[in-house]
# Entry
Amino acid sequence: MFGLASIVSVIEGMTEQAAVLIILSVAADGADGAVARRFGTGALGENLDSLADIIAFGAAPAVVSYEILKGYSAYAAFVLPSLFLICGALRLARFNIMSKRDFFSGIPITLAGFIVALLILSGNLIGRAHELAILASLPVLSVLMVSTIQYPKVRNWLVLFPVIGLIAVLAVLWSLGSDMVPQVSGLLLVLMVIYILNPLHRMI
# Structure
């Protein structure tokens, strides 16, 4: 639902709202994952989850990225979001057929969509250069999704709780129209980048 609402928001010209809805999708994805692990939903639940993910974290970020980039470069505005969506679909398909492991092979599509949304919301920190940041991030995130780089599955609540708390704070600040939204988004973005760079650092 959040993914569809995000796409509708883009159509209505509300790109920031679209980004917030993608972030709310991240929270919802974490919640339904916990429920699935608790009660067990089998193959049906896994496939439904993937279908929801491709809308919320593949299609919605691609559409909002297109809306932002189309005034900068019409060619890039179509090609790069398309690449992001295709790689996200490949990432989900690969995940569904792989045996369950204690690590992710490539970054999850949830994280990729989350980062795109955070880049949009933190745009006021760097002004118009945020278009370049989105332009550069889409191919990088696309490649990382289909890569075989091993990323740990974070289950430690000492790590998860601050991130969940910041997401909640971000949603509240946005609903209140606070000027602190870019700062909180930027902080979350830094945390996500640290997670992405951690295994890359070990490979060097």
About this structure: The chain has a mean pLDDT of 84.
